[in-house]
Amino acid sequence: MRWSIFILFSLIAVAIDASVGGILKIGDAQPRFLPAVVVFALLSAPRLHAVRLAMLAGLLADLMSPAIRADDTQLVVIGPWTLGFALGALAVVPLRSLLYHRNPISSGFATLVFTLLAAVAFVFIWTVRAGILRDESPSWWPGSGAGEVWHQAKVALANGIVAVPAIWLLDKTRPLWGFSTAKRVVPGAAREVV
Amino acid sequence: MNATRFLQIIAARLKGKRLDWTLASLALVLALLPARALAPWTGDIARIAAVPVVPIMHLGMVLRDRIRPPREAFDPRAPEVVELEMSAERYRTLFEQARLKTEALDREVAALKSVRARIGNTGVQLETATVIGIDPTRREGLIRINIGARNGVHRDAAVIVRGDIFGGAVSSDVGEFFSLVKPAPRCTISVRLYPADGADDARAAAAFPGTVLKPVEGGLWIGDIASDAEIREGQVARIADDRFGTVARGMRVGRVRRILPNAQVPLARVVEVEPIALLADESGVVVAIDPPEEQAARSGTAGAR
Asked: Using one digit for the tens of pLDDT, what is the confidence trace for B36-57?
């Protein structure tokens, strides 16, 4: 897998999410393209790199989504989305053997699962952070964590829907990504068909 | 040299899952650091990371604005907004004006119908008029209406309000375009006192007690009445003669307010009558203009008097 291509597509996805993605907003749920890119990579990348590439994308998400503090200053907290994406990757990687990963619909389902788990981890980390550091309030304040999970669930559903065409398009760029298609050859006697 | 070797050792040891766990632990530590530890440097890293994203983001913004143009912020002080608000206010005023005019016309039509139904086809001309001026002191009580000799108005023409209430009579000062009206409480009027619940049609007018009401201070009338007449408070005074034209005969002018003993004449009593309607409080009236021959006859009668 070519990391440069992954980083390039991640940057493009982040830029789209921050700009033109707003036109896809339904109610208060705006779908994001970054999870679709991550899931596309997760479904084909080597297992060894799966968590790492998800964490890199999560780091990008953290850097691009600063929290607004009570004094109207911005604070970039590195970690919540990074760990959330890592958790999502840990959930999606085992699904690879169950899903036909060239099928965009199964990719959409994988994106839904990925985003949902990432959102749960994100809310959990922010809740712990707000509990430990009393002067910090999460981005969903004054709403509740449960409300944010519900909101993120709607976003996850939107992500899953958007991922279907997005991953279909990404699949057209598959040669660029340099995914390994070599199969492992297991030593032993070849079967002879009688 | 030692640093390079240290990094080599670290790189050699941090591989596979160990690297993942290390990165995750580092992320967890960073996620739980207080704001004062993060604020000095994470913002700068975010700004650096955003550098390659910004051109694509700008393109996306242009595309978004093409697909869904942003709505311009509403400025309540913008000239077109002010002009629209003024237009709306102007049309609202015109609408209200038209509504009031319609109501006034409806009232005029109703009053004309009421008077016409009362007098029948007697040749009397009915003209509607608007009260355009009142005596501010209300001492003389003269009222100015917007029709005059040009419309055929003549002296002592009856001015009727609300269909069947005698409001006053046109004074001798009749202008070409306006007239002065002497309100009923300033006139001496010959009346008969009818029951409060309306005239008893079965009986002739002579069956009801009559009196001549003379104006007194306070916009009231008083009149002498015989002791044997059956009088109650609230009875309605109706005009009993043709001094203000045949139209005015039988019209309501006032209501008995009090019945007092007459100190000078023990066999008589005094009734105090208050007007039913004040001309100064009305906006529209109907003026009954007699036919020319009747006007001439009344002038002759008045001259003979």
From this structure: 888 888 888 888 988 888 888 8
Residue A61 with chain B: CB contacts under 8 Å: none
Per-residue model confidence (pLDDT) at position A61:
92
- Interface of chain A toward chain B, CB-CB under 8 angstroms: 11-12, 14-16, 18-23, 48, 51-52, 55, 58-60, 63-64, 66, 69, 73-80, 82-83, 86, 125, 128-129, 132-133, 135-136
**Nearest chain A alpha carbon to B43:** A76
pLDDT average, residue stretch A53-71: 87
Which residues of chain A lie closer than 8 angstroms to B34, CB-CB? 133, 135-136
Domain covering B107-304: architecture: Beta Barrel (2.40)
- A55 CA to centre of own chain: 9
Contact B32 A73 (CB under 8 A): no
pLDDT at A184 > cutoff 60: no
User: What pLDDT was estimated at residue A111?
Assistant: 93
Taking 90 as the threshold, does the pLDDT of residue B203 lie above it? no
Q: In chain B, what percentage of residues exceed pLDDT 90?
A: 17
How far apart (Å, rounded) are the C-alpha atoms in residues B154 and B180?
Answer: 11
The rounded distance, in Å, linking the Cα atoms of B72 and B132 is 51
The number of CA neighbours under 13 Å toward the Cβ of A59 is 16
B120 Cβ contact list (under 8 Å, min separation 6): none
How crowded is residue A28: how many other Cβ atoms within 10 Å of its Cβ?
A: 8
**Within the 62-91 window of chain B, which residues sit less than 8 Å (CB to CB) from chain A?**
63-64, 67-68
Q: Say how far apart CA A152 and CA A30 lie, in whole Å.
A: 10
> What is the domain partition of chain B in residue ranges?
107-304
- Asked if residues B171 and B179 have their Cβ atoms less than 8 Å apart, the reply is yes
B140-153 average pLDDT score: 86
Q: Which residue has the tokens 């109610």?
A: A27
Task: Express each pLDDT in B62-104 by its tens digit.
Answer: 888 888 877 777 788 888 889 999 999 999 999 999 999 999 8
Helix (H) or strand (E) holding B256: strand B252-261
What residues have CB less than 8 Å from B20, skipping those under 6 apart? A51, A52, A55, A86
Q: Each residue of A78-92: b (16+ CB within 10 Å) or e?
A: bbbbbbbbbbbbbbb
Residue B305 above 50 pLDDT? no
Q: With beta carbons under 8 A apart, name residues in chain A contacting B31.
A: 77-80, 82-83, 125, 129
Q: What average pLDDT score do residues A143-156 get?
A: 88
Token code pair at residue B199 = 């005239």
pLDDT 10s digits, A21-31: 888 888 888 89
